[in-house]
Design goal:
The protein has 144 residues and is mainly α. It has one domain. Helix content is 44%, strand content 8%. The chain contains five helices and four strands, in the order ααααββαββ. The strands form two sheets. It has a two-stranded antiparallel sheet. It has a two-stranded antiparallel ribbon with strand order 3-4. The longest helix is centred in the N-terminal third of the chain and has 18 residues. It is globular and about 45 Å long. The two termini are 27 Å apart.
Length: 144
């Protein structure tokens, strides 16, 4: 399994765990895996070298898991990981708002904070990745 596949797997596992109706055995149709893969690829490309640096001390599956938590506004994720509490050697990585403007977090004290801000946004900017949701229908999960 490639690092990208691990990232998508962690993302999908967390999405199902956090969003499926309790007690259900909900699953994703293949079409939704493609939707998730496109979102994950865009996030990884936006993060660039920052995500590679994070992966040196954190596994790809967990990075995907935290991407889902951050973009849905769960209140936890990258910024809570001790393994990502150090400053980045990469420098500034810019997020992109829903309206197309570039932004960076002036309060990003760690790699985890910077990844969170790219996934969800800051107090002044809403990220292009923010607010993903799932809906369940007859045992299947769909991104909406």
């Amino acid at each position: 399994m490639t690092n990208f596949e691990k990232f998508v797997s962690g993302y999908m596992t967390c999405a199902a765990w956090s969003s499926a109706p309790e007690g259900s055995n909900a699953r994703f149709p293949k079409s939704e895996w493609a939707v998730a893969a496109a979102d994950c690829r865009a996030f990884i490309e936006r993060c660039g070298a920052l995500i590679e640096e994070a992966a040196e001390s954190y596994d790809w599956d967990s990075l995907g898991h935290d991407f889902w938590l951050c973009r849905t506004g769960a209140g936890c994720g990258f910024q809570d990981r001790g393994a990502l509490a150090h400053m980045s050697e990469v420098g500034t990585v810019y997020g992109r708002s829903r309206w197309g403007g570039a932004f960076y977090s002036v309060n990003a004290d760690s790699i985890g904070d910077a990844l969170h801000d790219i996934a969800y946004g800051t107090s002044a900017h809403i990220s292009e990745f923010a607010y993903a949701e799932l809906s369940a229908y007859r045992g299947w999960l769909y991104f909406s």
